[in-house]
Amino acid sequence: MTAENFKDILDSKNVYESINSLPSSIKLEDVEEFLNIKTWSHNKTFKNNYKNLQTDTYSKYNNEDYWCMRYTKIDGVDEKTFREQYVLNLNGYTYDNGDYNITEKNADFRVLTEKKYIHAIVDTKVMEKAVRSDNAVVQFKSSYKLVPFLFDIRHFYQWVYISKPVKVKNTEVSYVVSLRSKPDQKQNTKCYYVSVEMLRYNNDSKELEWYMATASDAGGMIPLFVQKLGIDKAVVEDIPSFLKYINY
Prior knowledge:
By secondary structure, the chain is an alpha+beta fold. It is built from 5 helices and 12 strands.
């Protein structure tokens, strides 16, 4: 897969109907290139949004999709906390005997954990899951109660591709890619959520870099340009919610 292929995979027009239709592997190099801050436009800086952390947001277009990314740097994270809190909850792999592992039974751990710190999620239903050679994939439906209140419950049908964390020299990197899944035939409101999330941890400096980029549309009567006005604040708010969940 090339970086251009990866950009096409992320196109919100793509709806993946089965495990076999998903990419068998997504390279770390392609994820890193897509999330390269130098290729994005800086939007806002959120200072002291939680425990003196600073989060910057960025934006760019991928094909016709508007993407928003947040980037946060967290210092002083020990290896145990990184592996047992950040990687486990945001990625789903467990660390044991010097390696990361995941079982099919627990492949949906990340998906089911989200609603514990993303408070807009009111329900998550897992439909299919599988563990492959270097990744796990899960098909699920997340039901959101969004604001403003004129939004009804929104049901987002997704596949999540969870890459096995890798060690590169003095760093450990994990990433997750969310893609569109075929919705239920009864789904009236067309909405979607596509995302790329990456954790990069330096074992020497104990510094953690947390990237998350998304393109989404809640559908209904609210045009995309109006939704774009609140996306930066919305993605940044997930950070204190998660950090409070892991008691950071």
